[in-house]
Amino acid sequence: MAKHITQKTFDDIVLENMSEFEMEPEEAIQDAVKQFESQGVSLSNIVIDPSLYSSEKGEAQDHPVITAVKTLSASLNDSNDSIIVSSLNTIHAECDIDLARRCLAGSHGAYACVLQAMKRYRDTPDHLVSALSVFCSLVNGQPDLMDSEGYDFLISLVKQYKANTQILELTIRAVRLNCVKHEGNRQEFIERELIILLTELLTLHKPHAEMIKEVAICLRSLTLDDDVRVPFGKAHENAKTIVTEGEALKAILELCEEHMNTPSVLAELFLTLGCLAVRDEFCHEVLVRGGVRFIVNAFKNSINDKTIVRQALTVLKVLAGNDEVKHEIAKLEGVELAVSAMITHAKSASIAEAVCKVLTAITLRNAENCQKVVECEGHQHIVQAMRLHPGDVGVQKNACMALRNLVSRSKEFTDQILSLGTERLLNEAMTRHEAAQDEAKAALRDLGCKVELKELWKGERGTIQ
């Protein structure tokens, strides 16, 4: 992990350069940046602005965001709303610029001040919206600021403003931003029954597109396993809880029907389904509720919409972990659709990768589906994708896996696949992408090609102690 320093440490070095070496602010900053970067220090959290350093006084001036935080702190005990709102607007504008300004504000007490402002305006919706917007901007990228007071307050707002979509959207966004890359925050919110509250909102606000999107994204944030500070996250357990306690699959599939003509909402719902279908029985539930048929039909009707196509492919790949779903996808001509998407969006590496993932999933242990892929010339388009996107490791890796599955139990397709120049492409992928070496070797092996398999480790004879 990269090293980090405080704003004060950076300022001290800049001022030292200015006083001892008589450098101008710009030159002093350049020298300080070089020094820290040579030591492996990340300056992503540092505000680098020459106007903050006075060459006459030889001192650093307060940054506008610090001044605004101080003004806000001093004004919260008064009844002058105009000064409070003005300070909040300044903090908001500064925090929206970059992470460095957000970190600077956070390190100077902005979290406590903004939280106090939100509490002050709890029953004044217009001002509360402004304060919540500032809060969202402040915590974006720095969820460590949160504390128990913040958890309790945000949850209480969700309960208080269930009918106010504007405040709800901002509150849920604040919750979501604090869940990204922070396992502790996720568990704190879940313990406060966030999951039940969110799934209730899915039903309560069915017609509101933006509201549904925000709730869907927030639910997905609870299924992340992205906090490197925690040895083992609870992403799987959280997804299971969302489905079993919140009955989310039923609610989401009903919303898909409600918003079938709103691509942006549909894409978010598909993506959320993919994050929640973490168990075989969940995939089966989606099938039983008609979800697979709906997804395939939406895919078919929006074949030219890259976003819908990509998310439909993503969720189909996840659901195809269930053998019954594999059969249903093939029955609904999902194989032909996937190949058609690869042709329609031939220049899109992300869609090529997604198609390869789906074909890999539905051909796993299924000779009948392998036959169907070859019949609709899917193998040819997989190979063509490898030619079109040689530098994309995702395409190369997943194309190798798809080709391998096609011949793993159906050796009769080997000659057809090799006649396309596949062996050369697999060797090129193996040479170009270290991350695709294992998949390329597996494909070469199952195609009967020459491949050098390395023995990664070898046991030695000895006695068991």
Task: Explain what you see.
It is built from 27 helices and four strands. With 465 residues, it is an all-alpha fold. The strands form two sheets. It has a two-stranded parallel sheet with strand order 1-2. Strands 3-4 form a two-stranded antiparallel sheet. A hairpin with a 4-residue loop joins strand 3 and strand 4. The longest helix has 16 residues, at 393-408. The radius of gyration is 27 Å and the shape is globular. The model has no long low-confidence stretch (mean pLDDT 95).
Q: How would you concisely characterize the structure shown here?
A:
This protein has 465 residues and is an all-alpha fold. It has helices at residues 7-20, 25-38, 64-75, 81-95, 99-107, 110-120, 125-139, 148-160, 165-179, 183-191, 194-204, 209-221, 235-244, 248-258, 263-276, 280-288, 291-301, 306-319, 323-331, 334-344, 349-363, 367-375, 378-388, 393-408, 414-418, 422-432, 437-446, and strands at residues 3-4, 41-42, 53-54, 59-60.
